Amino acid sequence: MKYEVKPAEKSTVRITIHFSGEEWADANNQAYLKNRSRYTVNGFRRGKAPKHVLEMYYGKGLFYEDALNILYADHYGTILEAEKEHFTPVGEPVLSLGDDFSEENIVLVAETPVKPDVAIESYKGIKIPKYEYTVTDADVEKEIEDVRERVADKIDVTDRPARDGDTVKIDFVGVADGEKFDGGSAEGYDLTLGSHSFIPGFEEAVVGMTIGEVKEIPVTFPEDYQAENLKGKPAVFTVTLHKITGKALPALDDAFARKMGSDTLEAYTAKVRERLEKNAASRSLNETENSIVTEIAKGATAEIPQAMIDKQTEASMQRMEYNLMYQGIKLDDYLNYIGTTREEYKKNFEEDARRTVLHQLIVEKIIALENITASEEEIAEKVAEQAKSVGKEPEEYRKTMDPRQLEYLENDIKVTKLFEFLMANNEMYPAEAK
């Protein structure tokens, strides 16, 4: 086998693979042995007809496709390994036969999408917004109130109308243009008022209803509503309220704090503040790093293969599917409810996917340009941190680690160093908090 690699259009390489007559004959024989039981010829038991007989009976090229697949499987991976210093494949190749293909000229062509180079106009001396989030007393109080809401006892309410924060059990029937529509009706539906689960105006109108009350609620679907046939349309929901469930909040005292794992309310409040401050610091760093790459990306270009965008888009779809799953909703049911398909909905993620891939390429390029590395001592320190968190000795823990975990730690160190470098070499100014 011999091959040659040449750059092609749109961040692909053309790998032209030449096979010898002996390799072709051997692949054809393997294909024959693999598939002969599928064919019958008069005078031979199934799977016993010689190869040349089958070719005479079914055609000379009977095993060509399988033979080519065998050659591809045997050699493509070897070629990629040999060329790994020159390009990185990011998707499956498009295969074709070489010009004038024949038994004397066995040529297979693989058009392979590869990671592109990114041209960066500048990554130093740029004015970049830096985000800084702080935690106030009001933030701490709100967090504690939210916790009280979450751990509150549920109580049946019979002596008052429904109000924000209550969970109501309702039946509803929606009508638009005089007809019911898909997803517009349900019985025994549990709705938490104030959750904004329904379109604007619906939950607000349920507030104030009493048990047994039937009410018609006029609404208008948003112009950007997912279902095309309902965008901007007026509709009327007939709602029957069957049950109201409220909350009995725990008293804000040391007993509450002990339930939350602290000895006193003062200690619990300090613990909440510490957690919020840690989250604020993380948010500040994440948004600042994102603003750095966003500014650099304004002067960066790359010919990104569709395969990379598709992979990132699929990852976004999977995250969405997991999030829905945690809420007890299947993705297919959700897509059916909003009247679209998986492939159509994926298009919503394409712009973000393209931007994410470009940002990743920028980060990798600057790390390479600045020769940013992670030392063995730095990696060992990270391993020790993780080992401590699970109560193990570093040496013992490292033996159980997957090589990909070590690669992730190494990359994390490089990325941290990169952003320290970029913050030190650009003009960072305070940004308005989002």
Would you summarize the structure shown here?
This protein has 14 helices and 13 strands. It is of the alpha+beta class.
Q: Could you characterize the architecture of this molecule?
A:
The two termini are 59 Å apart. This protein has 434 residues and is an alpha+beta fold. The protein has three domains: 2-115, Alpha-Beta Plaits, CATH 3.30.70; 153-248, Chitinase A, domain 3, CATH 3.10.50; 257-430, Trigger factor, domain 2 (Orthogonal Bundle). β3 (94-97) and β4 form a beta hairpin. It is built from 14 helices and 13 strands. It has helices at 21-35, 51-58, 64-82, 137-151, 202-206, 254-259, 265-297, 306-326, 331-338, 342-346, 350-369, 376-389, 394-399, 403-424, and strands at residues 2-8, 12-19, 94-97, 106-113, 118-120, 127-130, 153-157, 167-176, 179-192, 214-220, 234-248, 300-302, 427-430. It is extended. The mean pLDDT is 94. The strands form four sheets. Strands 7, 8, 9, 10 and 11 form a five-stranded antiparallel β-sheet that branches.
User: Strand pairing plus helix content: what structural class?
Assistant: alpha+beta
CATH homologous superfamily of the largest domain - what is it?
Trigger factor, C-terminal domain
Helix-residue proportion: 40-55%
Outline: extended
Largest sheet properties: 5 strands, antiparallel
Summed up, the domain count is 3
Instruction: Tell me the CATH topology of the largest domain.
Output: Trigger factor, domain 2
State mean pLDDT (0 to 100 scale).
94
Question: What is the level 1 CATH name of the largest domain?
Answer: Mainly Alpha
